[in-house]
Amino acid sequence: MTVNRISATSDVNRRSLWAIALIATFAIAAFWLTRPVTGAQSLSPVSGLMTLKASAQTATPYETAIANGKPTLIEFYADWCTTCQGMAPTLQAIHQDYGAALNFVMLDIDDPQWREQVQQFNVTGVPHLVLRQSDGAITETFVGKVPKSVLVERLQPLL
């Protein structure tokens, strides 16, 4: 009878340890996936989406950008687009570096209010980046992932 009690206690202790290990693993994973973006690259799609949403909140409204005479970078994006999420920290860094001299506009292709602009700029995939001069002329269009160095090189003549 004593052996059965020891065995039962041992099983309970083992299950408790497994439960603690499982909880700790989930806590670490949750922290890792939802941590704020601190570098140019993020391994977490959740943090990429958070950066994308934050950038959209601080972006210049489309109507303002078209009317104010400054050069403009328009990003057509979608929340579900993993490439958009991956590029979000890069575009956020460029926005921080050039925000005073350049409009940064973000248009969600899934939002029906931008349907006309999606057609006007021939958006065929996301991310779709359009560089406009201050007079409205389009100087460059990119579809897909673009290295920061290429974007900065193409932005320089607009500034």
From TrEMBL:
Parts of the chain that traverse the membrane: 16-34
PROSITE patterns, sorted: THIOREDOXIN_1 (PS00194), THIOREDOXIN_2 (PS51352)
InterPro entries on file: Thioredoxin-like_sf, Thioredoxin_CS, Thioredoxin_domain, TxlA/HCF164
Sequence ranges assigned to domain Thioredoxin in this UniProt record: 22-159
Gene Ontology molecular function terms on file: oxidoreductase activity, acting on a sulfur group of donors, disulfide as acceptor
Keywords: Membrane, Transmembrane, Transmembrane helix
The keyword Methyltransferase is assigned to this record: no
PANTHER family in the record: THIOREDOXIN-LIKE PROTEIN HCF164, CHLOROPLASTIC (PTHR47353)
Name of the featured protein: Thiol:disulfide interchange protein
